[in-house]
Amino acid sequence: MQVAVIIFFNLQITITTDYSLTNYFSSCFIIFAAQKPGKMNIEFLIKSSVAAALKNLYGVDLKEESIQTQHTRKDFEGDITVVVFPFTRFSKRSPEQTAGDLGEYLILNVPDISKYNVLKGFLNLVISNSHWVSELNEAFEDPFYGTTKATKDSKLAMVEYSSPNTNKPLHLGHIRNNLLGYSISEILKANGNNVVKTNIVNDRGIHICKSMFAWMYEGKNETPENSGKKGDHLVGEYYVKFDRMYKAEVAALMGKGLTKEVAEQKAPSIIGAREMLRKWEQDDHEIRNLWETMNRWVYAGFDETYKKLGVDFDKIYYESETYKVGRDEVLRGLDEGIFEKQDDGSVWANLENEGLDRKILLRSDGTSVYMTQDIGTAKLRYEDYPIDKMVYVVGNEQNYHFQVLAILLDKLGYKWGKDLYHFSYGMVELPQGKMKSREGTVVDADDLIDEMVNVARKTSEELGKLDEYDDNEKEEIYRMIALGALKYFILKVDPKKTMMFNPEESIDFNGNTGPFIQYTYARIQSVLRKAKEQGIKWGNAQREVELREKEVELLKKIVVFPEVVTESGKLFSPALIANYCYELVKAYNQFYHDITILGETDEVIRNFRLVMTETTGKVIQLGFSLLGIECPERM
RNA sequence: GCUCUCUUAGCUCAAUUGGAUAGAGCAACGGCCUUCUAAGCCGUAGGUUGUGGGUUCGAGUCCCGCAGGGAGUACCA
Question: Which residues contact A103 (CB under 8 A, 6 or more apart)?
Fold first, then answer.
């Protein structure tokens, strides 16, 4: 039986006036996976034994959580290290002596500890091989090793990601968002949560009106069908055309002596687009039809890109369906005196008491802004689902927006308002700096994926390992490798950090890359295939098998996988999974290089190596599935 | 201006959240395929963790100052 207890820490109650980011958005979705009864995790066992030792030796009561352990560094002998500095105040002895006391106690009381040594204030414990082997057997037997299945009663997390505007195609920035959103969802699932993946499509607003305006004036009835262009790209072209038109008009007006500010308001194209937005909100037939048509083109394009990326959604919200709910909420807030109306008719929230500025909620012409619809969307979602945790995967440029959103929802009386979690990730930069559509430096998602596939094809053909496959199978493998490279490259870096994407260097398949890890997986499958061909059968390893150093290292890497899954769930970090997979694979390749598997004549040892090989493959696949990366059987 | 944030090897990133001698990959140089997939393995070289102080048994990590990047502060989304 497997039990998972999930506890939500609500960190905001203590402070009433401080609305700083840390209070709202520090990771407050903390998961505790309970130990399986009878199968005590070794670190926990050591912690409780240390606690008992401290009580016994020095008469102090310390909780297990306050005892620090870590994996012993490679340069020292041992597997698990207890940090004893904090205990010297109780022992009134030197760190070395204290560590020695504890070591003696542990070796007498914990059978799985075979040796210990002391260095300064560090007590290094050597765990017996038989313990590691029995953990390996558990991993070997469990097809979902390291993960916890959700039940009907598990907590429900809703994860919003992607959230495109419908006026232009997806680019590199969206790719990071989509990969993070998908991966975070998988990681939360693996930690025993129910997850609803959702997408809010920003299908209405001034941006799409700009594309519509340009299409009406310059479009000549161009459609995806008659032009052969992908729908989202076509609409994006008109957005760019609008921008050019607008810039030219502003320049012309400034030439006539208007100031920049006035010219920007008086340009005919922007007035036209605004008029379209106003008509749209009034349900004008002609405008609505054009809007529907152009959005339909865009969705067809997006679907293609999502499919290529391998991401999906359980529930899609459209801003056009939620903004009214938001507007009603704002008007209710106005009635209740939470918000205020300015003379020109615009509605504002005054957040000066919270240390922030005033924020507009409705324009003077009555139309909604981004914030308005986000209020409505949030309300609808909580009506539609019994959400325990709402996660927004949105770039850190919107930190302020989400800080304000949480406060507004709180002011509107929603108790969950302050529990919204903004999973704030860093921007993607190019060697030339930020991506700018006007300067043509945007890396288009479709182009990038196609380019990655081309490189994968070329590399694979040079290596010539897939020659006996037919073309369809080959293309499928090229696709897996290309996406493996792209996804791993992006997910291996800490989501919070700004990352650099160099299109040339990112298309590398050697070293710390997705294809290297996929390659190791393929290699493992090859060994297992050969074993089967030779009629070899393998099963649970014998506990008393003799182990070589590379084997122990690999073994220890395999069995920390569950810990990594838990940690990545707590920290919302696919990067932890990615970096773990790399370390695991590195350990496997060293083992593979130095030690024969099928060539081993001692059947007990050969069996152990096969169990370890198969389990490594499984863990790679499980880990990569949390990143949304597939593993080919051959490459 | 104000708020937030970042700065680790030539480049791209790690560092078990305050622990031991700061690690990988790429790039450079040298070695290993008659043996389970060389998209691999091994080695050499590369660092005053931007800078100055502070906190303590211990700081890349926490606090304060300075320098330099980035983001936000819109009737944009």
Answer: A116, A117, A118, A123, A125
CA A140 to chain centre: 27
Instruction: State residue A308's pLDDT score.
Output: 96
**Which phi-psi region, left, alpha or beta, contains residue A201 (left: φ > 0; alpha: ψ -120 to 50)?**
beta
pLDDT in tens, A565-594: 999 999 999 999 999 999 999 999 999 999
Statement: residue A18 has pLDDT above 60: no
Split at pLDDT 50, 70, 90, the class of A16 is: very low
The interface predicted TM-score of the complex, written ipTM, equals 0.96
> Do A19 and A407 meet the contact criterion of CB atoms below 8 Å apart?
yes
Q: DSSP code of A192?
A: T
Residue type, A478: Y
Return the closest nucleotide (C1') to the Cα of A597: B36
Residue A89, Cβ density class (10 Å: 0-12 exposed, 13-18 middle, ≥19 buried): exposed
Whether residue A1 has pLDDT greater than 50: no
Q: Is the CB of A205 under 7 A from strand B?
A: yes
* pLDDT tens profile A324-334: 999 999 999 99
Interatomic distance A365 CA / B37 C1' (Å): 67
Gap from A443 CA to B47 C1', Å: 34
Name the nt closest to A399 by C-alpha to C1'. B72
Q: Which nucleotides of B are covered by protein (CB under 7 A)?
A: 4-7, 11-17, 19-21, 24-27, 35-42, 57-58, 69-77
Write out pLDDT tens, residues A265-319.
Answer: 889 999 999 999 999 989 999 999 999 999 999 999 999 999 999 999 999 999 9
- Strand B contact with A500 (CB < 7 A): yes
Whether the Cβ atoms of residue A524 and residue A584 lie closer than 8 Å to each other? no
By CB atoms closer than 10 A (0-12, 13-18, 19+), residue A167 is buried
Spatial contact of A619 and A139, defined as CB atoms under 8 Å apart? yes
Domains and CATH numbers, chain A: 42-127 (3.30.1360.70), 204-310 (no CATH), 445-627 (1.10.730.10)
Cα–chain center distance at A22: 20
Query: How far is Cα A185 from Cα A144, in angstroms, rounded to an integer?
Result: 17
pLDDT tens digits for range A478-489: 999 999 999 999
Our CA dihedral for A245, A247, A248, A250, rounded to 10 degrees, sits at 120
Percent helix, strand and coil across chain A, each to the nearest 5: 55, 15, 30
Q: What is the pLDDT of residue A388?
A: 96
